[in-house]
Amino acid sequence: MEWMQGAWGAALAVFLTGMLLVTEFLVKARGLAGLAGVALLGWYAYAQNPGLHSWSAGLLLVGLVLMILDGKVIQDGTLAGCGVLLMLIGLVLPTGDFLKGSLVAVMWILGLLAGLLSLKVLPRRELWDKIVLKSALTRETGYSSLNEKYRELVNQKGTAVSDLRPAGTIKIGGARYSGISQGVWIKKGTPVTVISVDGTRILVQALEETGEKTDPADGEKKE
Fold first, then answer.
1. 132 vs 12, 30, 112, 119, CA distance in Å?
2. Which of 128, 189, 203, 219 is the most buried (most CB within 10 A)?
3. What domains lie within the chain, and their CATH numbers?
């Protein structure tokens, strides 16, 4: 008991407590890390205050409950942050010494950070897999920031099947799409060409007189 009342003993106990509690929240420790952390926390509190003053024990208890509620129910980190702060106060004030309290505060924070290392050696809890998006949105996994079908329309020619003022409907290769002009009015039946595509936004412009004609029915050019 006496070793924990010393500055370094108290700091070590606080470090291990923070590390064990974070480990319990992040990985599948089967409750062992949590039980060990709570037991060490209670031992620390009793060593610093044999009388277990209600305010000190209350801060530690409320802080722990907030961390548990956040990890099990709310899962947004707000309550957990408040809980960590309350526990920090409950750990530091009973020391009654500025240097010892500062050392305890630093070791508490380092212990919480050290608990993150458990993710590298133990399987993470399923709730974190649900919260964190692990799959990359890549073309290989079926995703693309730009719809491939629409991107293939660049430089293709078609016909405005409605007035574009500046948005309207165009027809390319027998298929209809929503198109938008460059701020100009394009009349229905005007041959157009796709100059760019941004997602599903198709930007078109009227074809100049080049000798090419576009079939209004299907958007195919004819000589």
1. 32, 21, 20, 14
2. 219
3. 2-131 (no CATH), 148-222 (2.40.50.140)
